[in-house]
Amino acid sequence: MGNICARLKAKPAPPHSSAVKKRSSSRRERKLDDAAIREQAIAAAILFKQHQQQQNFDRSTSLRYPNGVSKKNSSSSNTLPRSSSSRARSLTDPLLQPHQLLNQDVKVDDLETNHIVLVHGGGFGAWCWYKSIALLEESGYKVAAIDLTGSGVSSFDTNSITSLSQYVKPLTDFLEKLPEGQKVILVGHDFGGACISYAMEMFPLKISKAVFIAAAMLSSGQSTLDIISQQAGSDDLMQQAQIFIYANGNDRPPTSFDLDKSLLKDLLFNQSPSKDVALASVSMRSVPFAPVLEKLSLSDLKYGSVRRFYIQTLEDNATPISLQENMINASPPEKVFRLKGADHSPFFSKPQALHKLLVEISKIL
């Protein structure tokens, strides 16, 4: 996917009228312009939402369960549908044949839990996990991807969010409805780290492990803004990209902020395929500001009882490795993993490597 421009390099049309196949091939390989890529991204988002509806998703939670048919009984029933495109797919496409990729020897029935809950970062939505969802389900996991309030397909106005509890309510509602005795693995990305921390304090007995991916891993009494301010500077790309929105008037605190679309790639997707960057550019929403300001109260008895793991992203321009190290040193998790070549969005830039780490963490006794 990342080499799409190279594969679609324009070629001159053959001069002979009989070379129909060559002309057709040339047209298919012509470099897509920005408008075409944008249309593909919109189509991908629409297909993702349609698939949610087919799986009986509600508007706040994208919950999907793996196929119940054994691979031994039917090898074709567990494979993902092939694209109708006549273009041969590269094996680097993680959605081609997930069963050929990683961790296919996972015995999910032997795990403490095979239920993974994915929590997006600020401005993202459940849509950003589409590669991880496919790979995890193919390995036999149950997967829930949450749209937090005002994110993804949530219709709530982001500027009306006044607290962290309001923002994470779809997640806490999901955990509250879990049957007694069932546990999940919480995975938080970016600002989703603060969100899963809040949930860990509320529902420690329902969470087997917590995984922070380039995420805000706060100490008690800290806010996400406290963490962000540690890297603030005139050359800070995140600070340059922020566009504050004052829905209550310019004389009142900001209600949310957007990220400058012209800086999105350099900030969040510097190693990601262009198609995923285009998808994000038409799907990302404003980040509510009040939850970013809120200081968390985390206790050793509750939050501290949940096993924590951190996945570092080494090519990250939004949460630099130095900031990740600061959070890890201030509140050490059980184990730290490092994703080489991963930008701030490893579910796009390194989906297979991320999948492998999530499976590995799920198997830690």
UniProtKB/TrEMBL annotation:
SUPFAM superfamilies: alpha/beta-Hydrolases (SSF53474). Residues 116-354 form the AB hydrolase-1 domain. Residues 1-32, 57-94 are annotated as: Disordered. GO terms for molecular function: methyl indole-3-acetate esterase activity; methyl jasmonate esterase activity; methyl salicylate esterase activity. The keyword Hydrolase applies. Residues 70-89 have a biased composition (Low complexity). InterPro entries: AB_hydrolase_1 (IPR000073), AB_hydrolase_fold (IPR029058), Epox_hydrolase-like (IPR000639), MES/HNL (IPR045889). One of its GO terms (biological process) is salicylic acid metabolic process. Keywords: Hydrolase. Pfam families: Abhydrolase_6. PANTHER family: METHYLESTERASE 11, CHLOROPLASTIC-RELATED, METHYLESTERASE FAMILY MEMBER. This is AB hydrolase-1 domain-containing protein.
